[in-house]
Amino acid sequence: MSLPPLILGIESSCDDSAAAILRGRDILASVVKGQNALHEAYGGVVPEIAARAHAERLDYCVEQAMQQAGLEYDALDAIAVTAGPGLIGGVLSGVMLAKGLAAGLGKPLIGVNHLAGHALTPRLTDNLDFPYLMLLVSGGHCQFLIVRGPEDFTRVGGTIDDAPGEAFDKTARILGLPQPGGPSVEAEARNGDEKRFRFPRPLLDREGCDISFSGLKTAILRQRDSLIAEQGGLHIQDRADICAGFQAAVRDVLTEKTRRAISVYLDEAPGTPAMAVAGGVAANTVLRNALTGLCAEMGLSFSAPPLALCTDNAAMIAHAGAELFATGIEHDMTLAARPRWPLDQSAVPLVGSGKKGAKA
Amino acid sequence: MLLLSGGIGAGKSHFARRLIQSLQDVPEDVPSPTFTLVQEYETQKGMLWHADLYRLSDPDEVAELGLLDAMQDAICLIEWPDRLQDMTPENALSITFETHAPPRSEHERTLTFTWSNSRWDTICAELRA
Questions:
Q1: pLDDT tens for each residue of B43-102
Q2: d(CA A13, CA A86)
Q3: Is A167 exposed, middle or buried (0-12, 13-18, 19+ CB in 10 A)?
Q4: Strand blocks (E) in B18-74
Q5: Which chain A residues touch B105 with a CB distance below 8 Å?
Q6: What is the pLDDT of residues A183-193, one digit of tens each?
Q7: CA–CA gap between residue B94 and residue A308 (Å, rounded)
Q8: Using a CB-CB distance cutoff of 8 angstroms, which residues of chain A are in contact with residue B28?
Q9: What is the dihedral of CA A227, B102, B112, B46, to 10 degrees?
Q10: Runs of H (alpha helix) within B7-53
Q11: ipTM of the prediction greater than 0.95, yes or no
């Protein structure tokens, strides 16, 4: 039996530069450079947006991945690269490198949608069957997708303002907790009473699967300020209670909206109902438990790929490339970097067609 | 070009969202640009850039984003414009958002308009009237 194809994946659409080598569902090497080093130096808020930085780092990422896998370039069967959406300079440096490699080695070139990489990751990690429901949390966005095939996605709802990760980050900023806010707010909430402060559940009373967290910021800000005004400062317990109340609000909104998205998905009568959650949401124990419980209640299997494969990485790009390659898709030297590239083209009237920018 | 200043939850993004949607035939979602840095929209008045510079550390990154070019030929709504430092455009209208402590309503905001370019004189006089 012949081995599945050996795919090199390249990713540079946002803060990170990355390269990975994949055979089937085996990740032979995965190198990510950029964000971690910057996190340490700048406290996690500084993006590396310079195209030049990507261009400089990408070569090393690829070289290191090849060394880790112990492979010669000749062994590769195809080169997969993120062709969008993202900051144009970064995407362009990845696409140029991939074209160079593909032309030099005489190997097929495959352009991959960065968001498709995220959305297909549960097939790499958990071998899910199509169609499955995906809660995709990436780069400040959060959307429910029904994933039917490597190029077939339907968006059933998503955030209309702040994504959950952003809500956690901003709550941390308001309360003077360290960034990123996900882990620090969760840790703080563990010592808090979620019932002391009742924060709003935005859009809960409205139809559909759209999510809003923006209004929570104002509520938290006001709660903080009124406590400070009353007692001349914020006690540690106050902060913990605010965090717990905030997290409970996010949990309730996310759970209810997920319940609705699951109903939409189950209307299609999928053979093996499954839901996957990618991104920081699955790293939060409270949110994860709520979603796990909901899936059990509604008869879906629940999976959450490991965080290293939910943040930007190239293994997911190699995997999405492999899925496209298997269906016979290849691109030529006209492959263009696309700053905007919505996953669900059909949902244009719903999510908007005029949206551009990174991860639109 | 509008520079939108104010703390978290002051209403910068909300203001931008409503402004963008009011310029569109079919109003679309306007997510926060905090993570993506820039979101671009097509509007009845031409291209519009919605930027959030909070995460930038160096004004040079403004050029990397393509924002300097956009300032020439697109409508720009820029949050956290203090990051622009000496690249702050002189012809912009600056709007500062302030929230208020109780007992004033949580929905209440005070907006302060400042400008130096005379093109805003009439517009702001009309707003005041």
A1: 999 999 999 998 887 787 788 777 888 888 899 999 999 999 888 888 999 999 998 877
A2: 5
A3: buried
A4: 38-43, 46-52
A5: none
A6: 999 999 999 99
A7: 41
A8: 351-355
A9: 90
A10: 12-22
A11: no
